[in-house]
Amino acid sequence: MAKGKLLVIDDEERLRKLLARILQLEGFDVIEAATAKEGLRKLEQEVVDVVISDVKLPDINGIDLTKTIKAAYPPIEIIVLTAYGTINDGVTAIKNGAFDYITKGDDNEKIIPLVNKAMDKAVLQRRVSELENKLSSRFGFDRIVGTSPAITTAINLARRVATTDTTVLILGETGTGKEVFAEAIHQASPRNAKPFVAINCSAFSKELLESELFGHKAGSFTGAIKDKKGLFEEANGGTIFLDEIGELDHDLQAKLLRVLESQQFIKIGDTKTTKVSVRILAATNRNLQDEVSKDHFRSDLFYRLSVFQITLPSLRERRKDIPVLAKMFIQQYASKVNTQITGATQSFYNKLENYNWPGNVRELKNIIERAVIMCDGTELDTSVLPYEFDSSPATAGTASIFELSTIEQQHIIRVLKHTQNNRAETARLLNIGIATLYRKLKEYGLE
Q1: How far is CA 14 from the centre of its chain?
Q2: Pseudo-torsion of CA 405, 409, 411, 415, nearest 10°?
Q3: What crossing angle do the helices spanning 13-25 and 108-139 adopt, rounded to 10°?
Q4: What superfamily in CATH does domain 141-311 come from?
Q5: CA 201, CA 246: separation in Å to the nearest integer?
């Protein structure tokens, strides 16, 4: 297996081929070019790790070529060769991004270790670049699916604010993807190499949440047996995402306001301040302006948090995105449970689009996971959807959901699904005769 790919650029054919042969014997995959132009063309066609270039080329100076290659392909490492090495040329080559500079005719024992070092660095940089791309795909804006105007507007706003250090308030119903947007904003920000820390403010009591956010000193309260870093310290240099910010206690609101204004706080039981550099993203499904008017939320904190607001649309407001989202979740879960499911019927997608989605994207994701588990074939159909997705003349129009006949019909549908349409077993579970079941199926148009 080749150790990596090298491009040798030299207009002296005999020397170029000799160097290429030596490198091939060392296990490298080597390609050649006689001019800078030919070398740049080969870089467009193939993935190269290291370039070895002569300084004196017929079309472009090798030191200038170094700058051009590094601008277009930053992970590539470049070794510059010359027959007449000068200190100035060496300094300029390094400034232009060369890995090193070596004089032609030096012992081959010197160039092989140099190439190995350059290759190690290039491979490492390529892996880092691939990892960054994977992170961007997993946590960035590419993860957000949809082309409807409502979601596109939200994405554009998030992209615009991501590159700044501005505090962002993300609004929207439960399940609309507020944390997904927060992660994407962090990933697209200059802080993306530092931690992204998320916490749900409604999941803790006031005392515990204060300790989680700001930390405490040993002995500050019963059970505090050692010093503890808070999440603001853990997120130092990066981003902290405060979900359900509307649930925050009044005293903690004051402490959070201090962090926003001064980037410092006092741990529980401490006497000195702790300084941090943290970007704050917050989210809520509450109307904070109403909470301010009811004196449930501090107005000064609200105005500080809402410098830049992004409102995420409910799934009802972006129905055209439902099939696309569903297809993505089908692919994810089919792969996860190792099934041969390839898609879904049009009637399946129609049912999804006509549903009200109180739980938004999170609910859709859960429904698809359940459907994939329940499916025995290669295509999802309406039989794997929960009974609340069913509709018929009896439940349409002016029919009341409180009518006994409506409740009876929905219960029969649910039991039929449970028995996989086994009529005899359905009648047994309903504790009615099989003839009665058939009569009711006919009555409700379920035959």
Answers
A1: 51
A2: 150
A3: 70
A4: P-loop containing nucleotide triphosphate hydrolases (3.40.50.300)
A5: 8
Indicate the Cα dihedral angle 321, 325, 326, 327, nearest 10°. Answer: 110
> pLDDT exceeding 90 applies to what percent of the chain?
53
Find the mean pLDDT for residues 298-324: 95
Enumerate the CATH 3.40.50.2300 domain ranges in the chain, comma separated: 5-136
**CATH 1.10.8.60 matches 316-443:** yes
- Non-local CB neighbours of 277 within 8 Å, separated by 6+ positions: 236, 237, 263
- In what helix (H) or strand (E) does residue 273 lie, and over which residues does it extend? strand 273-275
249 touches 289 (CB < 8 A): no
pLDDT tens per residue across span 93-115? 778 888 888 877 655 668 888 89
pLDDT class of 395 with cuts at 50, 70, 90: very low
Q: 97: closest CA among 122, 116, 120, 60?
A: 122
Average pLDDT over residues 384-406: 59
Q: Which regions of the chain carry the CATH code 3.40.50.300?
A: 141-311
Per the document, the length of the chain is 447
What per-residue confidence (pLDDT) applies to 86? 62
Instruction: List, for residues 282-304, the tens digit of each pLDDT value.
Output: 999 999 999 999 999 999 999 99
* SS3 category, 217: coil
Query: 385 vs 31, 287, 360, 373, 414, CA distance in Å?
Result: 57, 33, 16, 11, 10
What does the alpha-carbon distance between residue 188 and residue 211 come to, in Å, rounded to a whole number? Answer: 29
Q: Domain 5-136 belongs to what topology?
A: Rossmann fold (3.40.50)
Q: In 3D, which of 68, 42, 45, 94 has the Cα closest to residue 20?
A: 42
Q: Which residues contact 87 (CB under 8 A, 6 or more apart)?
A: none
268 DSSP 8-state letter: B
* Residue, of 419 and 242, whose pLDDT is higher: 242
DSSP alpha helix (H) spans, 170-235: 178-187, 206-214, 231-234
Closest to 250 measured CA to CA, from 302, 304, 182: 302
Rounded CA-CA distance 295/250 in Å is 9
